[in-house]
Design brief:
37% helix; alpha/beta
């Protein structure tokens, strides 16, 4: 039995196989429409989510399975003080696989240690967000045709952004990558990722404050929102939230083949006028999220479709 706690839980070869399966699901959805008939996915979401929860649920429904779960800690026995380990032991009696989001780093790992069914980490605090990373990798590979030989700009909240942390850790295993880290000083990428992930893997990177300075050289611009829920005080959040706004004028500085990704939700960091630009692929990205989660569910449940 396998769990998914980190994008590094899959080797590059396993990752390629998973992404190939997701592409096949995209092309031939009817082939997979009953693959999980009789199977149940439990979505245990201790903090709010739209895309991650609904895309997991859509993935299971598209596979012919069913879903159950809760969408906030207040609507679960966690509100009564039940531990994660007790919750997971109970839910394992009702479901075949779990997708879990929790505000505390490491909570899905605790669940996995006590679970008799596969656990998918659907986000744990500011730590990891592996299914978003799988979505990002599928989006880039499907639209660019490769995961190597790219210059990738990561913009916004690089300090607390778990999507950014997971994506970097997954991508450093591919060849000829360059990262441009675009953030204010207060939201720089954590030192441990710069040193232990980028430098240790000899991946070139540079840090800039102005988005405009980076745009002309990028193949991918990965935008992130400044996350209000990760700040300790309102004043710091208000000061930082509009630091970067991608608009039509800035898009004129970018190459004609640059793609704009965003894990969503967005607040102010991408102007709605950018949505009509063919290089803006964040809503396509959300669609790829369903395909890759379908592939993940099949893989963790050991279900093969001929």
């Amino acid at each position: 039995m396998r769990h998914l706690m980190s994008p590094l839980d899959f080797s590059v070869e396993e990752l390629d196989k998973l992404l190939d399966l997701a592409n096949d699901i995209e092309k031939y959805p009817e082939k997979y429409a009953h693959a999980c008939a009789g199977k149940k996915l439990a979505t245990l979401f201790y903090e709010p989510s739209t895309r991650t929860r609904l895309s997991h649920e859509a993935a299971m429904l598209n596979l012919g399975g069913s879903v159950l779960g809760f969408s906030s800690a207040d609507s679960s026995s966690a509100a009564k003080g039940e531990s994660v380990s007790d919750t997971i032991r109970t839910v394992a009696c009702y479901a075949d696989i779990v997708a879990m989001r929790h505000p505390k780093e490491g909570a899905p790992m605790v669940a996995a240690a006590h679970s008799s069914i596969p656990i998918i980490n659907a986000g744990d605090g500011g730590h990891q967000h592996p299914t978003q990373t799988l979505t990002d990798l599928l989006t880039i590979r499907s639209l660019k045709g490769r995961l190597g030989n790219l210059t990738i700009g990561l913009c916004g909240d690089l300090k607390f952004g778990r999507t950014v942390h997971s994506l970097i850790q997954a991508l450093v295993r591919y060849d000829n990558l360059n990262f441009v880290l675009i953030s204010p000083e207060e939201l720089r990428l954590p030192t441990y990722i710069r040193h232990d992930v980028l430098r240790r893997n000899h991946v070139p990177y540079k840090e800039v404050v102005r988005m405009e300075d980076a745009l002309p050289e990028l193949d991918i611009l990965y935008m992130t929102r400044v996350q209000k829920e990760r700040f300790f005080n309102e004043e710091d959040y208000v000061r930082m939230k509009d630091f970067y706004i991608l608009d039509k004028k800035k898009m004129e500085l970018a190459g004609k083949d640059m793609l704009v990704l965003h894990p969503l939700p967005r607040v102010n960091e991408i102007s709605v006028e950018v949505d009509d630009d063919p290089r803006a692929v964040y809503f396509k990205q959300a669609k790829y999220g369903v395909y890759v989660r379908m592939a993940l569910i099949l893989t963790l449940l050991g279900i093969h479709v001929d």
